[in-house]
Design goal:
The protein has helices at residues 2-5, 21-28, 42-48, 56-66, 70-73, 103-120, 134-143, 163-172, 197-201, 232-239, 241-248, 268-279, 288-295, 298-305, and strands at 11-14, 33-36, 53-54, 124-125, 154-155, 184-186, 209-211, 223-224, 252-253, 259-260. It is mostly helical and 311 residues long. It is globular, with a radius of gyration of 22 Å. The chain starts with a helix and ends in a 6-residue tail after the last helix.
């Protein structure tokens, strides 16, 4: 849309190594694209800060509470019961045998962009939507689409669009999208395999749309939003089995008794298994029996089976 009016405008893509390969190829094949890389890879970020779990705000508060921040502890002890900041259902994570952190996005995406912005003097136009998160909604309500007066000047002209608006625009304008998403199609409420009435008459007003592949891609190793997308890694195993295997395999306890990635993999098999046993989150773990039989140790078993701990 921007290039309709500004055909030569530069696009900037941060290749974190965490995208679906088809998303990276789609971004980099465009014209006038500058590709940035982060200073650290994802494994290094997890080792230093911790695993990204649940959501950015919840993850941040869990991390702060574990460091003894009394303000953050209120999010888990019931003082905020009934409010949007009540995270008491994630209290079990306060003593998880692995660190959690929201820092990955700051290190791998935001930092390279901030450095580029300072060096180039350019300001960004981005396509985030207000409906995607409470934080983005609040920022839009505060600053509007063009935050020219805020500390960080940025343009977010699609803030008031919905995800369905985006899919409708792609469908109506026959735009190409990354292979991981499949195709954009009208949701068919009729019999599978039969043409729906909208396709038949060519009238798509008030339609609901969906992608035939992934609904969202983002960082494929990330577990933000996993409670709403519990089969994320099941799909990853089907589409990118080698990448999924690297995410799941490996891991071990350091001298402080905390679970970390190792040279062979990120160790998600243990993290997911622990979340399912202690939080009953029911996250899909592809190849579960294989990973448990190959990597289970006595220390792992003790952590997984231990049901009582002190907060």
């Amino acid at each position: 849309i921007v290039r309709k009016d500004y055909p030569n405008i530069e696009a900037v893509f941060v290749n974190t190594g965490l995208e679906y390969p088809s998303v990276r190829l789609f971004a980099e094949r465009g014209e006038n694209v500058t590709v940035l890389r982060p200073e650290k890879n994802f494994r290094e970020v997890i080792i230093k800060y911790g695993y990204p779990l649940i959501g950015k705000q919840q993850c941040k508060k869990i991390s702060e509470a574990r460091r003894g921040n009394s303000g953050a502890e209120k999010n888990f002890n019931g003082d905020l019961r009934g409010s949007m900041y009540d995270y008491s259902k994630y209290e079990f994570l306060l003593n998880a045998p692995f660190a959690v952190s929201e820092k990955c996005c700051d290190v791998m995406k935001k930092k390279p962009l901030h450095i580029y912005e300072r060096k180039s003097g350019k300001k960004a136009v981005i396509a985030t939507l207000a409906e995607e998160s409470r934080m983005r909604l609040q920022k839009w309500l505060t600053h509007g689409c063009n935050a020219f007066q805020s500390k960080k000047q940025i343009s977010k002209p699609m803030s008031f669009w919905t995800e369905n608006d985006v899919l409708q625009y792609i469908h109506e304008n026959s735009l190409s999208i990354a292979e991981a998403y499949g195709e954009v199609a009208v949701k068919n409420n009729g019999v599978d395999g039969q043409i729906n009435i909208h396709d038949y008459i060519g009238d798509y007003r008030n339609c609901q749309y969906e992608t035939t592949g992934c609904q969202r891609t983002g960082c494929i190793f990330c577990m933000f939003g996993i409670t709403q997308d519990k089969d994320r890694f099941i799909r990853l195993a089907e589409q990118e089995p080698d990448l999924c295997d690297y995410v799941m395999r490996g891991g071990g306890f350091n001298d402080g008794g905390m679970w970390k990635p190792d040279k062979s993999g990120l160790g998600y098999w243990f993290v997911i298994e622990w979340l399912n046993m202690h939080g009953n989150l029911k996250i899909g773990l592809p190849g579960r029996e294989t990973y448990l039989s190959e990597y289970m140790t006595e220390d792992c078993r003790k952590q997984l089976e231990e049901k009582e701990w002190q907060i």
